[in-house]
Amino acid sequence: MNGQERLVRQSKTWLLKALFDLLAEQPYEDISVREIAEKAQLSRRTFYRLYKNKEDLLNSYNSEIGSQYLSELVKFGSGGATLEEGLTFFFEFWWREREQIRLLMRQGLYGRFLEAMNPHVIKVYQRFPAPWHMKGTEKEKTYFMMFAVGGLWNVLGNWLIESEPQSPENMASLMISGVMSLQDEV
Questions:
Q1: How many CB atoms lie within 10 A of CB 85?
Q2: Alpha helix (H) ranges present in 51-167?
Q3: pLDDT band at residue 97 using 50, 70 and 90 as cut-offs
Q4: What's the gap between Cα 37 and its chain centre?
Q5: What is the distance of C-alpha 5 from the center of its chain?
Q6: 79 pLDDT band (50/70/90 cuts)?
Q7: Is the pLDDT of residue 125 over 80?
Q8: From residue 184, how far is each of 67, 147, 176 by CA, in Å?
Q9: In terms of Cα–Cα distance, which of 78, 51, 83 is closest to 37?
Q10: 108, 85 contact by CB (below 8 A)
């Protein structure tokens, strides 16, 4: 990576941090590009070289974190993993992002986050080899994944907003218990 690429990456990092710092202080609607740039100690011109507007900046976080999740999941699961290990990985990954996710939730931006994550869902299923994947047509797999992931995102949101959330390992065990009790009913 050359010096210019490093500078661009660092500027993006500073702008994103500035956005999240401002989200902790005021409503998203009230945050301006000028404030973001000032907080990041960068010019508005630099901001506009990198992003169209503050929505573009927020969307870049959503997209990048989804790509990072997919990349880490593929590495994690390259040797195969149990459902419980996969759920533990899911909760551990998002635990690291909890402060940002909590801010998005408090600001009413969690829906945008989820919308950005959905395209990654099918990629996860296709690239993460797991013995517990369902069989069926691509359409059946797509709908099932949307069903399952919709539930997981709701669980994630409720879990991260708790004042004293359980550990990622406990959450994975809780989910496995729930799945097992459903299996007994089917």
A1: 14
A2: 54-76, 83-96, 98-106, 110-127, 138-161
A3: very high
A4: 24
A5: 24
A6: low
A7: no
A8: 35, 20, 12
A9: 51
A10: no
CA atoms within 13 A on the CB side of 31: 23
Read off the pLDDT band of 127 (50, 70, 90). low
Of the candidates 47, 52, 54, which has an alpha carbon nearest to the alpha carbon of residue 12? Answer: 47
Q: What value, to the nearest 5°, has the Cα angle with vertex 92 and ends 27 and 140?
A: 90
Say what the alpha-carbon torsion angle 3, 56, 111, 149 is, to the nearest 10 degrees.
-50
Least confident of 29-33, 139-143, 161-165: 139-143
**Statement: residue 91 has pLDDT above 90:** yes
Q: Which class for 9: exposed (0-12), middle (13-18), buried (19 or more C-beta within 10 A)?
A: exposed
Structure tokens at 148: 């399952």
> CA 92 to CA 88: how far, in whole Å?
6
pLDDT band at residue 182, thresholds of 50, 70 and 90? confident
Query: Alpha-carbon distance 153 to 170, whole Å?
Result: 17
Q: What is the pTM of this model?
A: 0.84
Cα–Cα distance list, 181 to 57, 91, 174 (Å): 42, 21, 11
Per the CB < 8 A criterion, the answer to whether 59 and 116 are in contact is yes
d(C-alpha 172, C-alpha 186), whole Å: 21
